[in-house]
Every structure is written in C-alpha cells, then in structure tokens.
Amino acid sequence: MMNRRVVAAMAGFVFCAGVVRADDDCQFLRDRLADPAVSEVVVPAGTYLCAKPIIMSRSGVALRGQGRPTLKLADHAESPLLLLGGLDDDASGVPTPVSGLLVEGLSLDGNRANQKGECWGGACDTGGTTAVRNSALAARGLKDSTVRDVEITGARSGGLVTERDCAGLHVQGLKARDSFFDGLSVNWTRDSVFEGLELSGNGYAGLTMDVKVSGNVFRDGDITANHDVGIFLRRADNNRFERLRVAGNSSHGVYLSDADGQAGTCAVDDVFSQVESRCNGKDGFHMDGACAGDRLDDSAASGNKGVPVHGAWLIAPAAPMRSGGACPAR
C-alpha cells in the first residue's frame, strides 16, 4: 500500500514528509529541487529509498534534514546517491558552474553491498554518465557552497567526491565510513575548507587528493582505521593540513607520491601542521620518489610499524618524530 506524502509550499519554502512508495521514495525531492520557485527543501526524519540520483543543478538551493533523515540508494541503482552540480561537461571536462548550494543534516547510505559497478550506468569512462563514479555525495564544478553535518556510509565508490573544477567549498562535520574506495576524495578542487572530519573504516584511504588540488585547508579531525593509507596526495600543491589525528590505518599514515615517476605529478609545497600520525601499519609520514618540498610543522609520528619519516620532507621546527609508543591491539 502506498504511504501518504504531505508537501506544503510557502514563499519558496518546501516541507516534505513521509514516504512515497517502496521502489523510489525520492521523486518528490527531485521535483521540489527542480522547481524554480523553491529555494529550500526540508526532509524530516525517516528513511527514503532512492532508485536514481537526486541532482541539485540549480544555484542557490538548500536541502536540509530535520531529525537526521537517511537517504539510501536502492538495490542495483548503479549510480551516485546525491549529486551537486551539472553533467553538461564542456570539451575540457568542466560542467556549467553551480553555486550557493547548502546540504545539511543528512545521512547518506550508498548500499554498496547491493551495487555492482564503480561508475554510473556501466563500465567507467565509456560515455554518458559513466564518467561519474557511484559515490554517496558527488560535487562537480560546484562553487561557493556548503556541506554541513553529513554522515556517509557504504558508498560503492567514494564517500564524498569533489571534482571538475570545484572552488570555495566549505565542508564541515563530515563523517564517512565503509566506502569501497576513499572516505573523502578531493580532485580538481581549489580554495576550499574541509573541517571537523571523521573518516574511518574505508576500503582504501580516509582522505585522498589527486589532480589539480590546490590551496585547500583540511583541519580538525580523525582519520583512522582505513584499510590502506590515512592520507594520500598526488598532483596537489599548496594545501594545508592542521590538527589532524591519523591513526591505526593499515598502511602509511600520510603518503605523498607521484604518478609512476612522471615529471610534475608530485605533491609539492603542502604543509602538515600539528598532525599526529601514530600506530599505522607502515611509516608515519612517507614521501615517494623524487618528490620534495612538503613541510612538517610541529607534527609528530609515534608507534608506527615503519619509520617515523621517509623522504625529503622539510621539518620545522625540529618536530618530535618518535618511533616508539604503545598502540592498541589490532
């Protein structure tokens, strides 16, 4: 039997309550978000099954949860769950910019146990939507927007993925766990702030950055118990990492690399300030290959199974890089 849905709209404000039907409860959200008269959609407590993505491609719109609702990707949807930005990529791969979005107070369940593929609608990068990974939350060409107090679990690809020339983002209070790949994947993104992070138990890195990642700040959070490295950087420059605890990850705590020895692909001029890397499965801070010029500023490594620091790091001041220390049993 179909459950009743109540929608009330007043002066650009929309309040949506309840569940629509078993196979897709989310069409009312898509309809409201597409309505040019609507500037805010509020979703009350409850679990909403989404058979296809919710796309926010209109600037200046807010999607707020009330009472921590959960949006869950339906079985075999083979798509992202929530997409911020557009799909009309130009010849350089950049969609039409979307700005002024707010997403707040939601839980996103990617239902990865019941998804087969990494990419939307088929084999990756074979045309159409297959360039988009099946993340729980994807931002594409997004500008000057906020994601606040969002919890992500079970994404088939990454938890939150930013790409295709994002800038001016403010991500606050993000929790991401149990993603097939990374909890937070930042790509082709600049001049943004990510703070209050809890990235744990993801299949690869807790936080990864690759391709045109510049001038961002990552601060205040825990990156723990991920099944590969804690933090991974490549093709990234002039980013700051402040007051982060990177602990109990299966490989290196922090890992900087190039792309298979290709010139110009190292992470350079990044600063790690008051970052603690401890009890990880390999090195505390590891820099590969010919990479150089990244700095450790008042950071510490202890209890890691490898060495505290590997590679040509700049260390200022003389940081307490310890190799000992008690760690909890794994």
What does this structure look like?
β2 (13-18), α1 (27-34) and β3 form a beta-alpha-beta unit. The protein folds into two domains: 1-120 and 140-157, no CATH class; 190-330, Pectate Lyase C-like (3 Solenoid), CATH 2.160.20.10. The termini are far apart. With 330 residues, it is an all-beta fold. The protein has one helix and 34 strands. The chain has a 20-stranded mixed sheet that branches.
List keywords for this structure.
330 residues; mainly beta; Pectate Lyase C-like; 2 domains; 20-stranded mixed β-sheet; 12-stranded parallel β-sheet; 1 helix
Please outline what is shown here.
The chain is mainly β and 330 residues long. It contains 1 helix and 34 strands.
User: Can you tell me the CATH superfamily of the largest domain?
Assistant: Single-stranded right-handed beta-helix, Pectin lyase-like
Q: What structural class do you assign from the helix and strand content? A: mainly beta
Share in helix: under 10%
CATH architecture of the largest domain: 3 Solenoid
The beta-strand count equals 34
Contiguous runs where pLDDT drops below 50 for at least 5 residues: 1-21
Query: How far from one another are the termini?
Result: 48 Å
Q: Outline, from the CA principal axes?
A: globular
Described by strand count, sense and barrel closure, the largest sheet is:
20 strands, mixed
On the 0 to 100 scale, the average pLDDT is: 91
CATH classification, class level of the largest domain: Mainly Beta
- Estimate the strand proportion: 35-45%
CATH fold description of the largest domain: Pectate Lyase C-like
The number of domains: 2
Q: What oligomeric arrangement do these chains adopt?
A: single chain
Please compute the radius of gyration using only Cα atoms: 20 Å
Number of helices: 1
